[in-house]
Amino acid sequence: MIGRGQTGNTKLVKQMNREGILHQLKENSRVSRADLAKLTELSRPCVSSLVDEMIREGLIHEVGVGESKGGRKPILLEYNYQAYGVVGAVFEGSTMQLAIADLKGEVLFQYQTQFTCPKDGEKAIRSVEHGLAELLSQSRFDKSRLLGIGLGLPGITQRRDGTVSYAPSTGWMGLPVQREIEQRLGLPVIIDNDVNLMTLGEFHQGVGRGCSNLVYMYVGTGIGAGIMIGGQFYRGAMEASGEIGYMMVGPLGQRGYGEFGVFENNYSVPAIRNKAKRLLPSPQEDISIIRQLLDLSHNGSDDARELLDDIYKHWAFGMANIACVMDPELLILSGELVHIGEEGIAELRHMLAEWIPSIPRLKMASLGEQAGIIGAIHSALEAFPSARGTEMLVK
């Protein structure tokens, strides 16, 4: 925040000062204007002007009076978490989830939809458009109160310039997806990789809470990871960190540009379903393939046990590579990995203990399908922390 005596672009200064005041109100509920001036190191007239402006917008409430310290009793202020909302939206395979949350990040309404052609990028964009319309209709939430949308997409997303540079599952390759969706929806949009948002969800509200160095590993339609270092999300120079599906794990095979990586071509959910065809000629699509293989193994199938051993071993190869490079405190297992149970985790630990000198703690993800939505909401709250469209005047 910019305080007394500092200069800069006046609109930017004002917005930073507004965010500084809101931050202090989030951290210190029921404080006076004088208290805010001390906490923010802004002048009292500046604080008073900005507070009055945000009261008119509904971002701040006056909630009574405090004790006098020798003069008039101060009027206490409180941040109004219900003033506006943000939307979180995440694609996972052919499913899209959306949710509206308040400014505290608490989910108010949710909506889920299916679409039948995950490789069709245009259809995916239309799904966002339709999904938001349905969410607003069902919740009766006023669209004018939405600050923006955090959107999780498959593939390598360029968060800074709003493009998806590499996404085999949708066919997006270097397209300005963010701009297109903003134009369709009439709302600000921040995009990110779907697994990145799942990682943020577990970091903020799940099993990763309180852990500053962790890796989140997801096995689904593809294989990906999210990386937190020192409590900050690590994206890499080209915003492609965590694309572990391209690790050289398993046979190289024949693959061309725009296809999935070697690891996910061999050990993602579609690849495992393909390997299991001879054991499960009529697999249940709505039940985890790992769960079905475990049931076969428990019923005496040596072939199912052999396939599971191969899957676990190659998943563990990926984990060993991650641990040797990142040395995380915690490795969160998600997606299809959550179905291996404690017995499966013990097998992975045993293999890792034989291969690498330092083993991270292994824990199952705790938020399930909510992880991506929660991460998308936090991403939107970070990107759009105050009322959109507010005119910023000279302080």
TrEMBL record:
Transcriptional repressor of xylose-utilizing enzymes. This is Transcriptional regulator. Keywords: Carbohydrate metabolism, Xylose metabolism. GO terms for biological process: D-xylose metabolic process. InterPro entries: ATPase_NBD (IPR043129), ROK (IPR000600), WH-like_DNA-bd_sf (IPR036388), WH_DNA-bd_sf (IPR036390). It comes from Paenibacillus rigui. Belongs to the ROK (NagC/XylR) family. The keyword Magnesium does not apply. The keyword Thylakoid does not apply.
